[in-house]
Description:
Elements: H1 2-39, E1 41-45, E2 60-64, E3 78-81, E4 90-97, E5 102-105, E6 108-111, E7 114-117, H2 126-134, E8 143-147, H3 157-160, E9 163-164, E10 168-176, E11 192-193, E12 199-200
Antiparallel strand pairs: 1-2, 2-10, 3-4, 3-10, 4-8, 5-6, 6-7, 8-9, 11-12
Amino acid sequence: MTMRILKLSRGYLNLKVFSYVLSFLSVLTLMFVSVTTHAEQIYLKVVGDSMEPKFNNGDIVVLDTSTYQGMPPSRGDTVGVLLQGQTLPMLKTVVAVGGDKVRIENKQLIVNSKRQPLRPASKGIDVIKMQIQQYDNRVPDNSIIVLGENQSTSYDSRQLGFISIEQLAGKVVRHKTVEPTQATTSSKNYRLHNGLGTNKFSHAD
């Protein structure tokens, strides 16, 4: 009887130790996930007025660089676009995605029968108009059309054409408005420490 109780006690002890080890490993896993998630988010400061009124000059946004890893962008997403040779992303709004039917008519971009006004742009809309015709009025797979909220100053798909999803630096997931009196306008090199030992810059022209 004594030996049996001793064996049961040892079994209970082993089970308890195993439970502690499992809990410890779970905590480690959660810590790893938390650190990884934080490492995939970049804090940026907006420069320019091409995304007004959604974002103002000097506002702070958080760009999640992992959002589009295995997941395509959606219409309405605010994204960071990296142009060739550039190290700073432009912030723009996705208005059409791969497979969408698009056409330009009466200074409007029509996406799946929904109309999106195209306001005057310094370089016109010749590029995107030509590409839409070239692809039979359909956005090619793995491509998107992006526009700035303030089209009068924005440089976007009207001049650049289709944007490849490989050019996306991430999705804006958080935003903090900064009062105009707090935003410095004398330089385009706004700096904000992202908490990971590096500094990141952004502009929204």
